[in-house]
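User: Here's a chain of 294 residues. Predict its fold as tokens.
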Amino acid sequence: EKYISREAIPAQSIVNIADLVLARDIPDDLKEDILKKKGFRDSKKAYKNLMRIIERTHNKVGFARLAVLACDWISKKSDPDRALNNWERFMTAVGIPDDYINLFLAQPVRLDILLDIFSVSQFLADSIIRYPSYFKWVTKLKYLYVEEKRGRLESDLVAISNSCIDEEEWLDKLRGFKKREILRIAIRDVSIQAPLTSIIREISLLAEVMVQIVLKRIWQDLDKEYRDIDFLQDSFCILALGKLGARELNYSSDIDLLVFYHESVLENTKYSVSEVENIYKKVMEKLKEKLSCY
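Assistant: Prediction complete.
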């Protein structure tokens, strides 16, 4: 009975994700079984993703704990393979990922949000991976759960404009501002499930503020070139048509703008009619150029 009874048969060992990332002697078929149960179609690639992360960290036990939680959540996402692959890319992009491991252990909701985005949108995933610091900023509570107002957007973009010493820096930071704000809105949309009406209002408000502040900087730059064009600026108006005019922009909408200027400007300026029209044309060409650099 000691050698051939049921009690003598070795029990099947219970192995989880933590064992998978910490041990090196787990049979391949058992690795595949564990990862398939978590919803990964390509178990070999999933295992490599996990190994690449743990190889970069000094906090291997902390990552093992985090991996258990992450894989449970990933198994419920729409595309587990893509979510894990993007997570590995993110953790590689930040260099030594210990700070983020500690952050996610302390605030696991941020990890859930990150995996949501990594699963559903490769475009947004690429933005986070390229600019990891944006993710920390947009997942602050004051930005996640409240619909954004004009004041904060305007003050942020004005401060960015004032800090730039040349056009190249301004365009680079303008792109970054837009990417950061679209990421914030998308997280509120995908993870927080804010109302659709709130999302389209925020996208429309972002477009309005960008047009306003970019236009202001264009006029400042032109004033250095032409001098005494304040009256031209005051007599100039842009009207938003289509979805922006209705404040119903979505993520992929174009914006339609129509320009007006008061005819009295032609009687109260030192510039000729053709010069005035060329200045206004230059303003709109520059506006289109700046807003299209993404």
